[in-house]
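Researcher: Next sequence.
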Amino acid sequence: MLLFAASQVIGHWSVATFHAVAIWLSNGILVAALLQLHRRPAVAVLTACFTINLFSNTFRGDVGVFVWINALMNLGEAVLAAFLARRVCGAALDMRRPRRLFAFALYAAAPAVAVTAAAGFGIASLVRDWTLPGFLFNLYSFVTVELLGLLLVTPILLLLARGHRFQGMTRASRSEAIGLFALMLVVTTAAFWQDNVPTAFLTLLPMLLISLRLSPTKTAAALILLAGITGVATLTGHGPVHLTRLPDIPGLEAVPPMLRRLGVYNVYLLAMVATVLPISTVMTERRGLEARLRARTLAAQDARRRAEDAAAARSRFLAMMSHEMRTPLNGVAGFADVLAGRPGLDTESVRQARQIRESSDGLLMLVEDILDFARGDDTLTNEPLDLAAVARETVTPSLAVAQARGLKLSIDDRLPAQARFTADRRALRQALQPLVANAVKFTERGEVVVRLDRAGDGVCIRVSDTGCGIEPAILPELFEAFAQGDASIRRNHSGVGLGLALAARHVRRMGGRIDVDSRVGEGSTFILNLPFERAVDVVEDVRPVEPVAAPVEESGRVPCVLVVDDHPVNREVARIMLEAFGCEVVEVCDGQQALNAVAEQAFDLVLMDVRMPVMDGLEATRRIRSMPDAGASLSIVAMTADAMPEDVTRCLAAGMNAHMAKPINQAGLLTVVNRALTGDLPPARVTLEAEAA
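Model: Next structure:
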């Protein structure tokens, strides 16, 4: 209300002093108040401002009905503009956004002024005798003055009222802001307090700098100062506006030149407002977006770090769980093998020992499935592979179970001889192993066949059985995690339903597709279509047959094996199995003792654990490889519960020839011993990373 009263006083002073009004501020102030206030205080402000307007009209000298008409026109224009602004710009008008600023100008201010002008000049034309040029000029002057007041005052007051929202939006420092304001004042004063050169355009440059570097609130304050300086200068007869050459227009002879030139001034201010305020809001919005982008970037980086930490923690957890679960299983499975092979044991005891072994194998498979499922997808490492050899490796763990059930487990290799295909060995084995294990588990009699064949540009692998088959109702959810063909308490087979889900996931990782063809009572066939590319075939190197040296044990010397393990049960299991093969066994419980033993005695094979006190197996292997005598040629095989892929890589990088995961069995251990004695183990390679470690 104070601003409204002050604007009325300024208007009266301008008319009394200069016989003209440069800007009519009252309606813009009233619109800003209506947009800021709630209903009850808004009604009170309207009533008070209407009363002030009536008193001002009476003081100005209006007579009769015109005292009320002028006040009603101002009130109607303000109410209409505020009503339209709330409709097109939202319930809470926000001038920080350029779109809303333009919407206020086009759909609120302009229509309100147009309606008021039509109503006012319609009434005035009834009592005044205007010529057409005089009518058009007065209409033009009224529209520009009123529109300028709304566009200049209302957005500026709303921006000032919401100044707290622009905290931190200013790029410039305090000293730079003071310098920009000083530059604007100097340039504006110099441009408008001289009468010789049309330099109004110079004021745009400092205002652009202010709009680009400062917040909309400060830009609004600069516009008010600019309007005050240029308005006073123009009304006092100074400035480039008065250099405008006025054309001779019939009917406007009685209009003072000052009033005609004020139209030019009003256009200047309109252009300044329409340029500076949108630029300021655009820059503010951009700075806000940049701030949000920086905040989101920091949040994303923090989330990424947390995710990486979580992934690392998960990997450590999975590795630890794998190790801790395999260690006791090694004792259970190992002693079951030892008992089953003990001479003189009755048939029932042998059966029970083998049952213990089968149960431990089932538990191991369950542990591996759960860990594999929790681990997620690793990056594929493709290499040229003999797919038939991979299939043979895959079916090996199921051979003993198949033989015990009286089943025939075979591989039907229809791929070209010596053909190699580019694939990931581990992913292929993880896809095939659950299928083979399930086929053996659900087949009571008959056979299980793994067939490999070409299919288009890739390979087709079929795992077929003659088992019980799968109910059609189960097929849609067959590859879902934890889905089971029979989840009731009367089911015949154990398992948690992870095998097929893992097989399907690994097939998808390799870019393939898995299908199933099953008939109840006749069997099932799982079909893997894999897009493996053909690699360079292996060319056999035909050489004369050389005489094969007699096995070491047949030459009269007993093979000597060093078992390095901190767990006494694991050492005992390995010792009993090795002694059954006719080997001499030396046991030590850490890497340092292993170094001392290798330095004192010659061994044919070292079975090295990884996690041990005093010195771990990796460091012990690196030091053995650095020994000058037989360290480089000694066969060292990891016999450890660290069975994750990265564990295998770490062992090989440390200089071990091969990796054997616990729990061990007699067949697997015998294979490793024979390969070591015949020199068939892969050569040891110590990588640079291992040497640096």
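Model: Residues 485-496, 541-555, 688-693 have pLDDT under 50 and may be disordered. DSSP finds 20 helices and 13 strands in the chain.
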